[in-house]
Every structure is written in C-alpha cells, then in structure tokens.
Specification:
The chain has 60 residues and is mainly α. It has one domain. The protein has 2 helices and no strands. It starts with 7 loop residues before the first helix and ends in a 6-residue tail after the last helix.
Length: 60
C-alpha cells in the first residue's frame, strides 16, 4: 500500500469540494466578479480534480 493513496471517503469529499468550487467559479465568471475569486475557486477546483484523478485509491 502506498503512502500517497486516498480512501474512498476522502476521495469523495475532495471531489464534492472540487465540484462546488467549479460551480462557484462559473457563478463568479458569469457575474463578472472579482478576479481573485476566479483564481481562488479555479485553483481549488483544478487541484481537487487533479488529486482525485492522479492519486490511487486504497483497496481492501
């Protein structure tokens, strides 16, 4: 078992946070909101999706 692996619960949590951040990114973008919010939500969403996509999940 690798030290860098995700449990299913942690992976699900990260995915949900990434999805909510992506939704918030889209809301700020369509409202032409502050750029710092675009960067914040975009980075959170991107890091979450990349983490879930590239780190392996633990298997029993």
């Amino acid at each position: 078992m690798s030290d860098l692996s995700l449990t299913p619960a942690i992976a699900t949590t990260i995915f949900v946070i990434a999805c909510l951040s992506g939704y918030q990114y889209r809301r700020v973008w369509k409202a032409e909101g502050p750029r710092w919010q675009l960067w914040l939500f975009g980075l959170i969403a991107a890091c979450g999706i990349l983490t879930v996509g590239f780190l392996p999940m633990q298997t029993p």
